[in-house]
Amino acid sequence: MVTQEPMLKAALPLFARFTVSNGLQTQHGVFEITLETVDRALPVVTRNKGLRLAEGAVGLLSADHLQLTDPDTPPENLTFLLAQLPRHGYLYLRGKVLQHNFTQQDVDSRGVAYQHSGGGSWEDCFTFLATDRKNQGFVVDGKTRKEPVLFTIQVDQLDKEAPRITRLHSPSQVGLLKNGCYGIYITSHVLKASDPDTEDDQIIFKILRGPLHGRLENTTSGEFIHERFSQKDLGSKTILYIINPSLQVNSDILEFQVMDPTGNTATPQSLELKWSYIEWFQTEYEVCENVGLLPLEVTRRGYSMDSAFVGIEVNQVSAVVGKDFTVMPSKLIQFDPGMSTKMWNIAITYDGLEEDDEVFEVILNSPVNAVLGTKTKAAVKILDSKGGRCHPSNSFNQSKHSTWGKGIWHPHSPPGSSSLTTAGSPHLERGPPPSSTKGDALQGFDPTDLSQRAMRTHGNGKSVPPSSVCRNGTDTIYNYHGIVSLKLDGGSFSAHKGKAKISIVSQPQKTIKVAEQPLADKVESTTDSHFPRQGQLPLFPKNCSVELKGLFHFEESIHRLYLCDGITWKVWSPQTKGLEDKSCPAGWHLYSGYCHTLVTQRKGTWTSATRACREQHQGNLVTIFSRRHMQWLWDISGRKPFWIGLKNQGRTGRWEWIGGEPVAFTNWRRGTPQHPRPGKNCVLVHKRGQWQSKNCSKGKAHNFVCSRKL
User: Fold this and answer.
1) Residue 136 in contact with residue 129, Cβ under 8 Å?
2) Where is this gene product found (predicted)?
């Protein structure tokens, strides 16, 4: 007997010849051997990774997703029997809907596909049995299975939302670059967009219109940016706006649109860049040797709500420091927020000797958070007091400024007793010279009308006509020159509405400013110690308002400085400057140690406003401490409704500020609501600044005020 195994090992033929004999007879024959293959191996599911595709898309099932192997079965016989079809899509075999089964050969040839039918389902699946058409069962993870196996399908929701702008502020921090240019970095502190489905390097800012007066540069590559930049670029501080100082502009606008890789785009936005220029007000001076203190005026134009600094360097030329003039120790001028003019004083030395005219120069350099203007050098010529040009008889005519901006300064008081501001102090008002006007000229004004605005002295009846008249906004300003005490002629102003106020300084050649205006503000917390005599109150040129916040007024009659805080004029002193140096971010307003911002672009309900204050502005809906605070908020809101952070806590029934502050002030329209209707637990400031309870999460969207402690 011949078995199959030895025959296969010995590679025997498939037949054998043999002879049978009994000793008498012999018979020859052939023994044929037939080999039949026996399929005993089960198919094995070697890969079942599932499929992932986008919502509504078509995905192919390849051998990378699903694979069935069997050493003794060809792929065309390895079959997947569908036990359960997909619920949220369809299987296709070469374009036709698949209902029953498919083979590994179909998978290998990329003939099997799945299409999602859309809708709100983000998971799908089908189940199958595997067979080699010979044996029952199949192997999965080393175990024989006869039950259906799950094939998962993950559907990714399409990103249909564009990135959202979460921060948009005007950058204004100017830096002096190593190459001598001026630049403003655009970072994520002023411009930021977010998208939960998109990484920062994929959030793109597409430039719709580039800056008009400067250019954008990538500091890493050194290349100009013309088309786009990413949120990652903003976060890594690589976007720089280069200022073109030759154009002498102080702002620029970048228009852009934020988008994600799928093409979702947000509403176009504009980013405004702001900065200021610092320069001398005048570039040439001629001063008499006995002038005493010479104040040089430094001006800042453009955006002035940030602090700025500039250095000063003195070039002696022919004049000698310490002999002909003395400079102040401080070589740095600081502009506080809102301040546009500063004075830097130089003491001119009077030696009584007849000598040649001497010249020195004062140069501005090393600006911080500002750009140097064109007038960076001021030349000062010291005239000898015995040369005739400084004779007292010429003092009036020669004090006029000539057409090229050069003028002669004369002593108003003995040397060393000048009443001018000290170095580094704010220069608040500068009266026009006698031959000029400040502000808009009065249309149709007849010079003969000056006599009708005469003022007369006390006691002697003499009248002094004004030397010039000009209009500044709604005020009419009359300029008088004299050294006597003056008062208004009662009949001269009878035709004018409002009460005229006069600021009189009894010093030679001082400008006296008379303005027609409404009754000025009263000073908050004013005591008798503030003024030399009772009833000598300051005469402010305008009522303090939000627009004038941060500006100073110097009252010469009592030699006091006042600061407008947005509500009232308050006495200012160096001791209060520490609080003043602290400032809120751009677009925020300071009141009682808190920074406030009015949000008008994204109106919302009380609930959404609370979330926006917390997440986007790192603060809370505003807490109101006093009636004066309420009036200030009502003014900056434009007298339009806005949400505040007061809410009725349902568990206690009490009205509480969300910041935890005690409720010390209320301004209800009809008294405190004791039992507000369901849902009306939040507060809206409405008409005339009065409070009303409103629904927290439903109803009309309104502006809101966020605040945070400075």
Assistant:
1) no
2) Secreted, Extracellular space, Extracellular matrix, Basement membrane
Number of residues in the chain = 710
* 156 touches 55 (CB < 8 A): yes
CB burial string 133-155: b at 16+ within 10 A, e below: eebebbbeeeeeeeeebebebeb
Q: Which two tokens stand for residue 406?
A: 């050069």
Q: Give the pair of three-digit tokens for residue 45.
A: 């599911």
Measured between alpha carbons, how far is residue 463 from residues 395, 466, 486, 489, 557 in Å? 22, 10, 9, 9, 22
Predicted local distance difference test score (pLDDT) of residue 198: 85
Provide the 8-state DSSP code for 54.
E
**pTM reported for the whole predicted model:** 0.43
Q: Please give the helix or strand (H or E) that residue 618 lies within, else none.
A: none
Q: How many CB atoms lie within 10 A of CB 488?
A: 16
Contacts of 58 (CB under 8 A, 6+ apart): 113, 114, 115, 116
Contact at 8 Å (CB) between 355 and 323?
Answer: no
Average pLDDT over residues 606-614: 92
List the beta strands (DSSP E) in 157-266. Answer: 164-168, 174-176, 182-186, 191-194, 204-209, 215-218, 228-230, 239-243, 251-259
Q: What is the mean pLDDT of the chain?
A: 76
DSSP state of 633: H
How does pLDDT run across 137-152, given as a tens digit for each residue?
999 998 998 899 999 9
Amino acid residing at 603: K
What is the structure's pLDDT at 255? 95
Quick one: pLDDT at residue 27? 86
Which domains are seen in the chain, by residue range?
Answer: 44-156 (2.60.40.10), 164-274 (2.60.40), 277-409 (2.60.40.2030), 447-575 (no CATH), 589-709 (3.10.100.10)
Say if residue 447's pLDDT is above 60.
no
Residues 42 and 56: their CA atoms lie apart, in Å, by: 37
Closest to 628 in 3D by CA, of 556, 544, 513:
544
Question: Looking at residue 501, what is its pLDDT?
Answer: 39
Dmax of the chain from CA atoms?
Answer: 184
3-state secondary structure of 135: coil
Q: How confident is the model at residue 79 (pLDDT cuts 50, 70, 90)?
A: very high
Distance CA 564, CA 583 (A): 15
Among 643, 698, 647, which Cα is nearest to 676's? 647
Q: How far apart are the first and last CA of the chain?
A: 105
Spatial distance between the Cα atoms of 620 and 289, rounded to a whole number of angstroms: 61
Give the DSSP H or E segment for 468: strand 468-472
- Residue 57's pLDDT is 83
Higher pLDDT, 539 or 456: 539
Q: Are 299 and 357 in contact (CB under 8 A)?
A: no
Q: What share of the chain is helix, strand, coil (3-state, %, to 5)?
A: 10, 40, 50
